[in-house]
Amino acid sequence: MKLSTVLAAAFLASSALVATAHAQDKVNLTWQMWGDEKDTALWTSLADLVTAEYPNITVTPQISGWTDYWTRLPVLASSGQIADLVAMQSMRMPSFYSILEPLDDHFASDKFDTSVFESSIIAGLGHDGKQYALPYDVGPWMVFYNRDKFAAAGLAEPALDWTFADFKAAADKLTEGENYGYANQAFDFIAGPVALGAEYFNDDNQFDLTNAGYLGAVSQFVDLTTVDKASPVFASGAGAVTASGRFASGNAAMYIDGPWSLISTQGAVDFKMGVAPLPRGEGPSRFITAGSGWGISATSQHKEEAYKALQILTGPKAAEILASAGRALPGRLAAQTYWYDVAAKDVSGTREVLAYMFEHSTPFRLNQYWNEFENLLTQYMPLALNGDSTTEAVLADIQNQLPF
Amino acid sequence: MAAIEDMTEVTSRPRSRWGNRLERREARTALFFLLPGLIGMVLFLVVPIIASVVLSFTNWKLLGTPEFVGFSNYVRLFTADPQFWPVLRNTLFFTAEYLVLNIVISLGLAVWISSLKMGQRWFRVVFFLPTFTPGIAVAIVWMLIFAPDGFFDFLMRSISVQIPSMLTDQTLAMQAVVIVSLWAGVGYNTVLFNAALDMVPQSYLEAARIDGANAWQRFWKIRLPLISPTLFFGTVMTAITSLQVFDQIYVMTRGGPGNATATLGYAIYQRGFQNFQMGYASTIAWVMFAMIMALTAVQFWLQRKWVHYDS
Q1: Residue A220: which pLDDT band, with cuts at 50, 70 and 90?
Q2: Per the count of CB atoms within 10 A, which of A92, A368, B217, B234 is most buried?
Q3: Quick check: B4 pLDDT over 80?
Q4: Does the pLDDT of residue B13 top 90, yes or no?
């Protein structure tokens, strides 16, 4: 009995050794990413870059749709089936940082300097002073506008530091008959108020939605719908005729989106479009940015190899490929120029607008309940917009339903 | 005589039935043949059900280890959660309205189809089509129709009817969900009831006609009582599925505007997979389960009053 136990243990130990030896030879890393099928070739070409640099490492992308990705991620993580490389969006970092490996020790070992990336997204992919992912894209929320409609209405193109009063005047003037000057959506009530100088958090990073500043700023945007009738009411359902749809069809002259949508929006419109920073309030301009990147799973068996792969996937060549496909404004500063040449080539002024916005970026304050907040905003804001409730009551209701 | 003795022996000593070697062997064989189904049931039904009971007493957040929290999830649900009562009210409201409309419309259609001289089969297929169309696809198409400034709004404007956009109005949003559910759900019951109506013996109806019963009386006094077991089955199944309504709400309204269309099914998804409060979502699921059980039990109790079985 004892002998057999010893033999079994010896066998197990030796097979583990053999496995490790094999692992050093050839490592297959899995890479969890969102996207649709047409992106598969793009991600595969990035994975191939890793094998070209390190022939013993292969990377296998596992692609799922955006919504499914965030349902699957915690399920896979809690059942121990998470991939070695994990895609992460900056706004979800506070909920998911615990499944990722802090990268700071790896940076120290190869003296990696993160300043090659845009600083706001490096901050966005960190949590509590630790870096959990490296970015592949970045961008602020900005105003997409219909240049033809601006010209037809005799309006000057928006200035870089245009104010809310300017924005409102343009929205009012562009509203005519069944066409709106601006089409809102849920996230506008986050990015918009921040640009006006308002805060949705208190000093302890907890939600404080009923503070006078935030309430006032949200009300200004709500009034565009309720008072000025310059914007429609958005529906809480997923993918209803959204602001981008209204914009593309000419039903709305302005809406708020990010550089990640520029190439698809541009492909959908048959007019000249422009981009402008979000309007500012009384104070100076300030903008929040978001972006996505890749991190290493905290439970990965191949962290060293995953780090090597991560360096390639977020490296200059990969950024150039993604930017040249128009897929994303690279977080890597030196590669941004490729994106401007492709995705933004027919949208004049994009370079200046984005440069201005990055210069005036402000940290995007998040906490672990962020996702709940966004969902509640989508669900409840229509009540303020359709006049069933007041902005104050809606914000108080959302605040009441948030854990903090 | 010997047979009777055998029987008395068996009934007087029931335990010995399992003592019989042959029967034991048969039972083992039966178990062997049942295994594929049984394993599936245990793995995918029994274990998850037990797991969800256990989870409902924890604060598991998908990530990290769950901690046992006793009844605090249940206490929170009934006393502290500002959303539970509106959600329960919405669920019951939807169930009541949808159930009544579904049964009335599908019964009406079934009677109409069975009265047709020709084309019965064709109509049955037409009304059954939505049943095998994926619910999500149906909801997406209807969402596009009802979207603000979408096809429905265009239609209303063109006939000069002034109503707010369905999906952004607190009262109308639920009606939009009911309409979509009816469109998708009526066909199944129609075919079910139609088949039952066709089973009613013609001789009964002819006898009634000779006795001078008019069409209305023949329907209420003969056809309806005779199809009542099928009607009961349809009612119970429709009530259960409508208490669990999720697809249409997930696609069309996400529980909004406000909490106007938030139902128990959607609340479970929202808490579990959007907010990652798996323990709390399990609690809601068990409350929903208890509610469905209770309502179904009530229906079974009530059936004695109106369901007529042949026997």
Answers
A1: very high
A2: B234
A3: no
A4: no
Write down the CATH number for the domain with range A25-139+290-342.
Answer: 3.40.190.10
Q: What angle do CA B157, B158, B164 make, to 5 degrees?
A: 15
Question: SS3 of A78, please?
Answer: helix
Domain span at B221: 75-306
- pLDDT at residue B11, as a whole number: 47
β-strands A130-131, A27-34 pairing: unpaired
Q: Assess A233–B contact: CB distance below 8 Å, yes or no.
A: yes
Q: Does A153 touch chain B (CB under 8 A)?
A: no
Q: Are A378 and B274 an interchain contact pair (Cβ–Cβ within 8 Å)?
A: no
Most distant pair of Cα atoms in chain A: their distance = 93
State chain A's mean pLDDT as an integer. Answer: 89
> What is the per-residue pLDDT across B158-207, written as a single tens digit (0 to 9) for each?
999 888 888 989 999 999 999 999 999 999 999 999 999 999 999 999 99
Contact assignment for A375 to B274 by CB distance below 8 Å: yes
Asked whether residue B97 falls in the same domain as residue B29, the answer is no
Q: Taking all residues of chain B, what is their mean pLDDT, rounded to a whole number?
A: 88
Q: What stretch(es) of chain A map to CATH 3.40.190.10?
A: 25-139+290-342, 142-286+369-401
Q: Does A375 reach chain B within 8 Å, measured CB to CB?
A: yes
What is the rounded distance in angstroms from the CA atom of residue A249 to the CA atom of residue A202?
40
Tell me if B233 is assigned to some domain: yes
pLDDT per residue over B15-32, tens digit each? 555 567 778 888 899 999
Candidates A237, A238, A371; nearest CB to B275 = A371
Q: Just give the CATH number of A142-286+369-401.
A: 3.40.190.10
Q: Least CA distance to A252: which residue of chain B?
A: B149
- Distance between CA A59 and CA A312 in Å, rounded? 11
Nearest chain B CA: its distance from A297 CA (Å): 13
* B interface test, pick of A69, A78, A178 with most B CB neighbours within 10 Å: A78
At residue B84, does pLDDT exceed 50?
yes
Question: Above 0.85 for ipTM, yes or no?
Answer: no
Within an 8 Å CB–CB cutoff, is residue B143 touching chain A? yes
Instruction: Please give the structure tokens belonging to residue A92.
Output: 């979800």
Residue environment code for B25-46, b if the CB has 16+ CB neighbours within 10 A, otherwise e: eeeeeeeeeeeeeeeeeeeeee
| Gyration radius of chain A's alpha carbons | 24
Distance from the Cα of A257 to chain B's closest Cα (Å) equals 20
pLDDT at B87: 94
Whole-model pTM?
A: 0.84
